[in-house]
Amino acid sequence: MQGLEQIFTDIVTWGYLGVFVACFLINMLPFGPSNMVMAGIAALALPALSWVIIGIIVALSAVLAKLIHYWIVRSSRLVLSEESISKLDREKERVEKWGALALFFAAASPFPDDPIIVYVALTKYNIIKLCLSYFTGKVVVTLAGAFLGYIVGGLFDSLFMVIGSIILTLVITAYLFTRETSAEKNQTSSVIS
Q1: Which of 2, 13, 68 minimizes the C-alpha distance to 42?
Q2: Contact 145, 44 (CB under 8 A)
Q3: Under a CB-based contact definition with an 8 Å cutoff, are residues 46 and 54 in contact?
Q4: What is the mean pLDDT of the chain?
Q5: CA 168: distance to chain centroid?
Q6: Which of 169, 107, 166, 171 is nearest to 133 (CA)?
Q7: Rounded to 5 degrees, what angle do the CA atoms 14, 67, 40 make?
Q8: 63-120: pLDDT as tens digits
Q9: Cα distances (Å, whole numbers) of residue 182 to 15, 62, 175, 192
Q10: Most buried of the four, 7, 55, 85, 142, by CB within 10 Å?
């Protein structure tokens, strides 16, 4: 059976659609891997694509997946007791005040954001505020990851060129040195004879 990384890499090779599908599926898993890393891997694997668009696509796929989580958790209020719902409703004012900031930092940090999504869903946080705050935080981290992947990919390309140039220079220098040394030997031996 293929590992999750291999499946991700295989799907990502489909281009922008592959990046979206792979990142969406992985974001559907609770406590999944970092979106920053996924954006970096996608940008590294697909150097011909725009790293900016890759970062935005990864952020959008994360938002869509978390919206599904939000609606699943929010609908679970139906099975909660009246007392639990009453406690959650008392938290609503605090969530309205700090929810956007908490979502932004949860999305932009390397820590799992699932607990915050569950909390705001249970308190029926405004869906538009959720999308805007979460997307803003996520796009910061995914653009950074995609940019790093793009830079690392560029470094490897230029690194191979630098290493190749060094090797070629050493080979040419060795050849010229050997040729010069053999010419000196020939000249010395003809003077002696």
Answers
A1: 13
A2: no
A3: yes
A4: 80
A5: 36
A6: 107
A7: 40
A8: 999 999 999 988 887 887 888 778 877 777 888 888 888 899 888 887 788 888 888 8
A9: 56, 67, 10, 15
A10: 142
Tally of residues, the chain: 193
Structure-token pair, residue 189: 């031996």
3-state SS of the chain: helix, strand, coil percent to 5? Answer: 85, 0, 15
127 touches 100 (CB < 8 A): no
At 9, list the tokens. Answer: 């890499």
CA gap 23, 42 in Å, rounded: 10
Q: What is the pTM of this model?
A: 0.72
Alpha helices by DSSP H, 51-81:
51-75
CA 193/CA 180 separation, integer angstroms: 20
Closest of 141, 112, 131 to residue 64, by C-alpha: 131
3-state DSSP assignment of residue 30? coil
Give the type of residue at 11.
Answer: I
Tokens of 153: 């990919």
pLDDT of residue 1: 44
Token duo for residue 15: 């281009």
One-letter amino acid identity for 74? R
